[in-house]
Structures are given as C-alpha cells and as structure tokens.
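Task 17 of the worksheet. Students: predict the tertiary structure of the chain below and write it out as structure tokens. Keep your answer in the requested format; marks are given for formatting as well as content.
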Amino acid sequence: MLKLLAFDYGASSGRAILGKYDGETLQLEEIHRFTNVPVMVDGTLYWDILRLFHEMKQGIHQCKKIGHEDFSGIGVDTWGVDFGLLGPSGELLGNPVHYRDKRTDGMLEKACGLIPKREIYRQTGTQFMQINTLYQLLSMKSANSRILDNAATLLLIPDLFNYFLTGEKTSELSIATTTQMFDWSKKGWTMDLLDKLGVSGTFLTPIIDPGSIIGSIRPELCSELEIGSVPVIAVAGHDTESAMMAVPADHEGFAYLSCGTWSLLGMERNRPVINDASYALDFTNEGGFGGTVSLHKNIMGLWIYQECRRTWNKEGRSTDYKQLEIQAMGAKAFTAFIDPDDPIFLAPANMPARIVEYCIRTKQEIPKSTGAFVRCILESLALKYRLTLEELESITGDGIPVLHIVGGGSKDELLCRFTANAIGRPVIAGPVEATAIGNILCQMLALHELGSLNEARSMIRRSFPTKEYLPVDRAMWEDAFERYKRIIQGGK
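Model answer:
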C-alpha cells in the first residue's frame, strides 16, 4: 500500500493527513491536528511560524509512532500571499506577518498611483486585494524596513516549510500566482512592477511546477525524527489549487467553490483569461497542475461566521454549529444582507457589531438574534456566489450547469441548500478533505502512481461520497437576489 503524508495549513488550524492508496481507492487517516493562532506583538499581527514547523515535526513523529514510518512522500499546502524573508546565510529574519495586519492599508491605492491599475492586471491577471504580496512588500519599502533591506531570499509560506524540510529554496507555481507578482506572458516574476515600486526582486527564487520533487528531508532532521530519507514534493502549494485538483467532476466546464475561511469560486481553464471583462470584474488567474489555470474570484467566506462565533464564545453563548444552524433555520428569511467583501469585514473584530454597522450604513433591518445573524451571513454568501457565477459565465461565455462545493464548507448543509436555491442549479458537495486529497493526488502524480488528472479525479469519485442539493423556492430567491444586488451596490 502506498502511503503519503500531506500537511494542510489553513488560516485557523493545520492537519497532518496520511493518504493510503491500495491501487483502487484512497483512504485518509488524520494523524495530527493543531491550531493556527496568529500572535499580536506591539501592534503587528504575526504567524507563529516556528511553532507551526514544530507541529509539522510532531506530525511526522506521530506518523512513525503509530506504525506508518514507511510513507513515501511529503507535501505541504497553505494559504496564499504571505512569506518569510531569509538572510544571506539562510536564517529566518523574522516571523511572517499575517495578511490581515493593517500594514497594507492604503498600499493598493499607493501602488496604483505609481503604476496604472490596468497595467498591473495586464501582466499578472490577479484580483486586486490589499493583502497581496506585492502590496505587503510596498508597505515594507514605504516603512524603510531593515528586514527587507537585509533579505537575500523571499519564500512564500509553503515554500518556506519546504525549505525548513530540505534546505532547498524554490517557488512553486500556484502559490507564486497569488502574489500579484507573476507575469503570465513571461511565465516568471514580474520584475518590471517591482522595479517601479522600488522593490528589488533579486531575492525571488526560480519557479517550479506542482508535481516537482524538491529534494529529500535534511539528514539532521531525519536523525532528529528517527526516519529514513523521504522525498519532499512541491504539491499545489496554495490550498485552493490543491482543493481544485480533488473536485470529483466527470466532465469539463464545471464550476467549483473551495469553501472555508475564504471562498474561491471559479472554473478550470487551459490558459489564463486576461481581458477587459476579467479586469472589469476583477477575477484572478492561478497556475495549477499540468498547465491548467484556475480562473476564480476570492470571496470573504466563512471567516465572518467564524469571527461571530469567536465573539459569542467570549460572551458565554453556545457556539455549537448544529445549534446555530437550527436557530438560523428558525429565523426570518432575507431580513438583511451584507457584502462579504466589504473592507469592514477584513480584519479580526467583533463581527456581529460590524454586521450591525453595515446594516445601519445600508439602511437595513438589524438582525435581532444569533440565528438571524447566522442566516444573514449564509444567505449573503449564497447570493454572492450567484453573482460571481454569473460574472464567470459572462467572462467565459460558457454556461455552468453544476457547482461543486469542496472543503469544510461542504459540510454546512444550510449553506449548500441556500447556494443551490440562490444559483438555481444543482450543487454537489464534497469531498470535505479536498485540500489534503489534492495534496496527496499531486504527490501520486509526481511519483507516477497515477497517469493524469482525469485518472486522479476518477479515483476520487470511487473513494469519497458526495451529496447533491437541488434548487427550490426559486421565486423567493430571485426576488432576494435583485434586492441583494441593490443593497451591496448602495453599500459601496
């Protein structure tokens, strides 16, 4: 039996997942789970990167402890845009800063004052978000950062973990295309944009394709963990692109929604889509396995719900998901709507209070109960998905018959039902562990255990169940969608 170890780091937790393939189906075993809590120090929000690497070593140790030391590869996927900087001797110069830190406030506008916005998009085909690596670097340059001045190497988070494991400094394609620093016409870093912002690009490393073997675990790490030499494989390092690989579609032209803290909704294409329509609607192009490109939009996903739960937990209220869902089902439909992508919802905060503030600004009824807040969030997300799906159809000219929801959000039955109702077409939910599955699939493809992405998806359909949701109450949702569009346009 082939065994492969996937490390999947999300914005709030991480897991070590062991994939076991018997030649026909894939089974998953959770080896280690841990929290990923950012740390605020002196007004700056950091990732606790050394503890996260410690948890990776704990995952490897636990895998060996329970008798699975015979795994044949390791792959790492994480969130996008963030990075660590190394000094000339390869030492980490500081903890990576969290993308929700306030240092990028105003940086997108500053960059577009130096370079025309359309020119940035023409080169990168990337959605404009103030959290993008390009604007993080501009913020450091603007603050005369000594760390930036002394940096010899920039590594995005999955590449940084791969460096900790192997000592090799590389940049994997999918994570590189989250930065707004990848030039699709040149298939490499856009040094032109960096030069115009006054940032030297000499610290960037060569870009490699997902499915490349980076190297083996460092000998000293093998000795510490008492394991043999194991190859470290560059999987699709951005968790969205790993999840995309695990969509169990049996046809072309499908749309996917990778649903978790962020929601990413899009389609798989054979080449980047960079034109007036994709620019006007602000869609991103992300590199994937085997030359594929994901055309999608980043949407603030279950983050708002998660932050509400965090606030309610502090107040001593019940935050059990099942109970919250029951309360939401009992709340009045379509009381109020929010635009999940409004800047008010970006930073950690008392999120119920932010929803109230948004409703006051847009002259809507304020949710009165916990269930009403949850319903407002989930209905708004479903309607945002409808809007984004229609934008995607207008860009590509393709009709989209079905939406695949993968990731943690596929477990949320109420969200899946609302989404099917909002978009007026079937939703196929699952697999839940799509990111870890995609990570493992990429390792299998790199090791030639599978012959193609289509073969991999066929295996996924045999291995993991899905659930179909069909649309109902169409008239109600059509009326709600028209009202939703008016409200979010008025909220800008």
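Marker's comment: The chain is about 40% helix and 20% strand. The chain has two domains: 2-234, 248-430+451-492.
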